[in-house]
């Protein structure tokens, strides 16, 4: 058996299934039905797969209708991401639940993303953006106006936006910074090939990822406890956990009054059970896991594309200034964001043109007849791909052209079945309304307060997959990895001497990933001229 065939890839469409095939390695582009997610495997993963005798059968559902079928068939398939995901994210995480248990969680979470709730999250987001945009400008000044990498700042601003939206002031700046710095490790641990017991071997990627995830869980549980204490005093909700805890309190009061014999009571709109601090932590961790890389990807491409398209940026800037009555310092609110026709078209086109999530792995829980001619065997990984539907020329003419106008004067808005950015079915993204509004607030404010310039590298337009889509590193990956190792040797030695062996291993991994991510796209940023 050839080691490269240890994992079999089956690419299927509703028209005609094909024979099993190995994955073609081509990282320079995403072509139709074959996004290069699995092509990102390193050689050692193939070798280890062969040596430990693991054969993983992977089916790629690249057809739009088949993707919908997988998303909407909970009786046959469940989300799995990768085999080790449950160990990193949590075996009890609600995203892995099915049936009644999943519905119970989801019913309580949906009201946290209504327009009314989202409106209360915007002030803290404005505050985060103010802080980080000042950091963007300061970073460029400190670099004497020379081009610099912004990837880590983009990751950090998105981590701060998420954590503050989740927990408001219950989480400290230092905690947000540490989560932003360390969260690479949790994502990096999710290899498709799972080495048995690797999670218990010190300094492996899985071990480091698990430690990082556990640390975030502890912080989030502490924040949940602080929230419950604050809301018990009658505080006004300003973040996601506030609203969730308030709904728990309202439900508990209703049950207590019913138990006391009261009648003719108005039942709370969101009648839910009491969730423990750990359950709240587990749930908000899944939100962070879902948002961190996807939002960082969208932010990176958004700033890069608008720097390359001044015509689009000028229109967006004009619209945002008009919406503020000429006062560029006026804070945004929900009605304002919803009124920004062109800005929202830019966001939709970005998510179509460079979708952060190109596929979502599912596990077949039983033999799954995906077409009349082919049944996915139980235990196989079946992966619906979102990218082909979003680049279908029949739905979106000239799909490889960034054209926001297709959402205004064209008919793109009517192609709802192709709009798989947020998935579909019982596990679709709860934040499908929140995410575009948050991005609109971010880029609208940036357009009025900042000027930025993109300095392309030879590979800026190429794709590298790190959970989501990012611009490719600027040099050959293997050469750059060696460079990163050498460059960070002194950092590791310093960490070893100051913090001990265990912490030094963490510094080593972070240094490598920081260097890799820093090489993706360079720019300069300054305050917008009056």
UniProtKB/TrEMBL annotation:
Pfam families: p450. One of its GO terms (biological process) is sterol metabolic process. The keyword Chloroplast does not apply. Keywords: Heme, Iron, Metal-binding, Oxidoreductase. Heme binds at residue 429. Its cofactor is heme. One of its GO terms (molecular function) is iron ion binding. The keyword Heme applies. Belongs to the cytochrome P450 family. This is Unnamed protein product.
